[in-house]
Amino acid sequence: MLSFSRSSILSYLLWSLLFLTFASSNGVLATAKPKVVGFGYKLVSLVQLPNGGGLVGCLQVKQRTSTYGPDIPRLRLFVKHERRERVRVQITDADKQRWEVPYNLLPREPAPPLTGGKVTGAPFTAAEYPGEELVFTYGRDPFWFAVHRRSTRQTLFNTSAGALVFKDQYLEVSTALPKDAALYGLGENTQPGGIKLRPNDPYTLYTTDISAINLNTDLYGSHPVYMDLRSLGGRGVAHAVLLLNSNGMDVFYRGTSLTYKVIGGLLDFYFFSGPTPLAIVDQYTSMIGRPAPMPYWAFGFHQCRWGYKNLSVVEGVVEGYRNAQIPLDVIWNDDDHMDAAKDFTLDPVNYPRPKLLAFLDKIHAQGMKYIVLIDPGIAVNNSYGVYQRGMARDIFIKLDGQPYLAQVWPGPVYFPDFLNPNGVSWWIDEVRRFHDLVPVDGLWIDMNEASNFCTGKCTIPKTHQCPIPDSKTPWVCCLDCKNITNTRWDEPPYKINASGQTARLGFNTIATSATHYNGILEYNAHSLYGFSQAIATHKALQGLQGKRPFILTRSTFVGSGAYAAHWTGDNKGTWENLRYSISTMLNFGIFGMPMVGSDICGFYPAAGKLEELCNRWIELGAFYPFSRDHANFASPRQELYVWESVAKSARNALGMRYKLLPFLYTLNYQAHLTGAPVARPLFFSFPDFTPCYGVSTQFLLGSSVMVSPVLEEGATSVSAMFPPGTWYNLFDTTKVVVSRGGGAPVRLDAPLNEINVHVYQNTVLPMQRGGVISKDARATPFTLVVAFPFGATEADAEGAVYVDDDERPEMALAEGQATFVRFHASVRGKAVTVRSDVMMGSFSLQKGLVIEKVSVLGLEGTGGKDLAIQVDGADADADAVATSSPYLAAGGGAKLQGEDGVEENSKRSVSVEVGGLALPLGKSFTMTWNMQIEA
Predict the structure, then answer these.
(1) Which of 69, 247, 348, 686 has the most CB atoms lying inside 10 A of its own CB?
(2) Is 0.90 topped by the overall pTM?
(3) Boundaries of each Glycosyl hydrolase family 31 C-terminal domain copy (predicted)?
(4) Residue 749 annotated in active site
């Protein structure tokens, strides 16, 4: 939820004034003279540490300036090839310890301790410091450094064009870039131009509660990492750069250069060699933490609304979905369940505990789940046990020695300090107490940037009540506050473009001169708040009943994906916001947070016809990794059953999602192992196909299922990009697109209740029958869809499925608790083979999971014959593999569509279905037959 005052005219005028002030003070206006910020450093010594410990050097400032403060005179340079594919370059003060992301939050290899510039080791005089894949090079006077590939000498990063600047509150470094580099990342922000970064757009990183409807601004998360994809000789080659720094920063991308301007901390770069996008996320998440495993039910459909004012409304929503036969797995409460918006409480009138427990018993018996919201702000209330226990343990962030006073939904609040070990243990205890009160199935942590309706140093007013009783605008500050202007933390010398309008760093958040545990400044740790809360919440839930946690967080940082899922915040019910949601979702896959989605139909109300928009949004949102409808109290009711046309679209799109649940859950497993995003840009699978580098209106699920939604009002068709190869429509596999890779779009029919979803050649796709709840859907028989190239006579296809007991916190293969099956298919002339390799099949056998059908697409011929099936290497007994007699049937000719838009009926390619089966998923099988091909 967002404080609505941000969208007020008063705030707009204030931000406009702030921007003009920023433009003048930072030299943005055309009339201002550019300031000399720094003259760089020279390298005065460089040694190599023993036993592969890396290089350590000493840098000395060349000439001091006073712009943004005095230069730090001596810097320590540290370079290490930490892994074959990764090199770290760290630059910090040689004499004093500076702030860096705490190692207990983000575990990683430590840098050597500071020794005041005195380092023992062998003098290093070589021009290059090579690793297995990446090479570090440097210049001495002035100091610069570069990183290039060892194999091709392709330069990835080169700072020689600009001076290194290192002051206490201002760090600057630049790299040159080729014009044809395609960059992605540097978020979170809503990018109207799509996923590919645009030169001269603003990229500011500082966690802020500013609605996602604001474009090109720093939003809820800070992810200072980018992926660079270049086409070299027809081959797409990627690398990534992370600047691990939690301080606020502006990043200026000019097309041929990229400049960081950071207001604190140190320069701690990590370079990842790739060379493919998938390799990048593997290397990146191996360092920052693999994505957290999600429970199976989390991939079902979720429904929420801020404004379910009592339990009977929630019960009615669940009944509405069931009556409309629309899938629903999880029902959510925003803050409506709370007593006066206080965390870990229940409203005794509208959500009485006995009735809520009875409701939860009912939905839990059906397999449904229940999740509620909690905000970090703890109400200042002497009769409130959560507050009392927090005060007793002294766990709140402080300003001038007292808990920092802020205002959120309950009124005056204090913010827990999740960098304080006592704060973490207190939070874990409060989660346990609440779970004893209400057996929730997950937690939603919101407003954790942290959001504050007030700014500055505040006191509880003596002349009026706060919160104001029955206020219609509880997001308006009612505390007595004054701006803090007497510290360099609240008024730093360089003003980043915070909130897109150069707002104060403490604007509507915690004052940056406030302190955390051990004197840590909010100025340094601000963007870590949501990350640290997610870690504490994960610890709390993991300790409850030994189940796999599910946490949804708004504010994120590097590494948040190891603990939580994310939704893209407060969007609006408009066609533009529908389109923007794709880019934000794809960015978070790059950031290592694959479980992500946007509020379906929009959080804020908007003028216009919501019905058509909601049709198209559920068709798209049904294929978000995290699929949830959510709106605020001012919006018209937008549950999917409200309109019959939307209900029809929901049954169609969510019906396909629930059939694809085993595929999505397997992608979840692969994400947990390698970081591979669930939803991916097209270039992840087709890095050599340059026309797809900027595609932001379509996306892939895994490597081979492509979603092409309608994103324009009134449209009944969609123009879609198809990378080279054969693509089959999953809703009607006789509709086939064969792309020659020319880059021309293909016009696809898309009536109101339909979305185009295609599966790519060379794929074996596991599906089930579906249902209206994932508990039932996951027990139904499997169908394997085998997609060969159109008219194939020699081809291969592969796929996999992972099934487990998703109650376990760990997501790993273990006998009796999980099964992993690889599927292989081939066609060689007339001979077709489909087989499986099973790892740890006992779990699937215990659950009675079976394959009932195999559907093979793209074969040449008129039919099949000579079907033979073996199970576990032996000829199968008919009773062991079939519910009735296995049959082999051929479908009709495909309807072929190419880039020229011409359709034709083709007899050259057919689908072959092998049905009537009951093949145990937990046993390896081999199935063969011969195609009948006319001369």
Answers:
(1) 247
(2) yes
(3) 675-765
(4) no
